[in-house]
Prior knowledge:
alpha+beta
Amino acid sequence: MSLRLGDIAPNFKIDTTQGEIDFHEWSGDSWVFFFSHPADFTPVCTTEMGRTAQLASEFAARNTKSLGLSTDTVEEHNKWIEDVNDTQNTTLEFPIVADEDYKISELYGMIHPGESETAAVRSVFIIDPNKKIRLTMTYPMSCGRNFDEILRVIDALQLSDAKRIATPADWKKGDEVIIPPSISNETASDIFPQGWNELRPYLRLTKV
């Protein structure tokens, strides 16, 4: 199954480190950062789980729930969490899916045979409160994720939804944004009374 942007994230019921969850019910009205790992007790994954836990307040400020996945059991996950907390100086409180039969990994296309027949690659799904997939990223097993980028794209997606804008290359919170070409100058005058800088008719920059 190939999941695309705008698709409804497939629902599932599964055991996690916080008991069984129904994914759509668990996510509720929140955004979700759903991310997979090749296996428990692996070095890169340990740092990523720790970094997610360290950034708990940042995700919460963005109304975003974190959900990890690894192709191991709840029992193994719980032992691993002890290592994560100890080595990364944090307290991991978000659930980790137990996907030892690869059910969810296959459902979400997390198994890439060119990397491994049995381990999930480092997939990222950003899912909005309407259960739509808004962003996907896939990292190889050897490369840890950039969490500054994950938070940045959540900020960009949420601002785009709220303000009808797009964000330029390397945008960060507080930077100028783009007025989409689909919005006429007449309409833009109502939406963006602060005005804009028109570099080209199709490239208008403003602050929001």
